[in-house]
Amino acid sequence: VNDNAPSFTSTVQTLYIAESTLPGVRFALSEAADVDIGKNGVSTYKLSLNEHFSLAVHKADDSVSAELVLQKALDREKKPVITMTLTALDGGTPPKSGTSQIIVNVLDNNDNIPVFSESLYKTKISENAPLGTTVIAVSATDADEGLNGEVVYSLRSKDQDRILDMFVIEPQTGIIKVKGNIDFEERKAFEIRVEASDKGQPPMSAHSKVLVEVLDLNDNAPEITVTSLHQTVKEDAAVGTVVALVSVLDKDGGKNGDVKVRIKNYVPFKLETNYKNYYSLLVDGPLDRENVSNYNLTIVANDDGTPQLSSMSRVSIIISDVNDNAPLFSDDVINVYVKENSAVGAVLKRVTATDADSEQNSK
């Protein structure tokens, strides 16, 4: 009499199946036992509804067995564990049944590449940043597990040798740090190519870019260059005569590179702008060599940066003589007293005249 239900020795059956397993592969299952005989014994098996597996039932003589058949490819990242119920039915009327739970653990394959949180990272950093300063932290995740999901970061070695001299990345954290001296005047931006690789065999990699904008600091003082057009300037030079050319260069950018130029001391000369940062040094008043024969000018250049930087250049201008002075006697009228009977050739008096000019103009 059908007074016994089928039963499984294992109420839970655990299977481990790699996610790379192809559909059609079969997996043996534990059989159920029924102490009844004949048609009251185990007659068939049924599997609870699921999208990945079906059941193949085999009947041979008085035994009935079942195999699990993979119908649809597994994906551990979508469903790492699949739980089903296997039911054994006998042939009695009404039929009795017993169940066993099937737990399929999907084993990981390295079938996912790392994914960066951003395809393009952007950041800014000041020039002259100390070595070891953190620039930015990149992050990538891998949907695989274990070594297949562990991500290691590196900077690509191809086509960016200069980058490897300037920056370094921590392999485990993805933190990019300053390795070399960053100079705005040398380079205003960097494009760093970052690679994230997992530890699978073979490893899979992904790439991202980091754009680093360098912020200018006012670390360069203006540079003054003076080009004299004449060794000397004649004292009768007209107002507006060009004496020298002055150029100013500041390697900084923006306000840090905007420069104002002036003559510090009071002299009969002035600076006139030709075009940006280029000037002419002009005569701006009457010159008189007999009063001042040499002028020492101090040209000062200040930028608009914070803190403000400045530089000075000293220019010596020699005034050359023009014959603009007549000789002068010491007296307008010279009285000479002569003794009678003075010998022929005796010196009566010495007369002298002076000339304020120089060299030939004064002889």
TrEMBL record:
Residues 9-116, 117-224, 225-329 form the Cadherin domain. It is found in: Membrane. Gene3D superfamilies: Cadherins. It is a single-pass membrane protein. Keywords: Calcium, Glycoprotein, Membrane, Repeat, Transmembrane, Transmembrane helix. Pfam families: Cadherin. The keyword Glycoprotein applies. This is Cadherin domain-containing protein. It comes from the Eukaryota. The lineage of its organism: Eukaryota, Metazoa, Chordata, Craniata, Vertebrata. PROSITE patterns: CADHERIN_1, CADHERIN_2. InterPro entries: Cadherin-like_dom (IPR002126), Cadherin-like_sf (IPR015919), Cadherin_CS (IPR020894), Protocadherin/Cadherin-CA (IPR050174). The keyword Metal-binding does not apply.
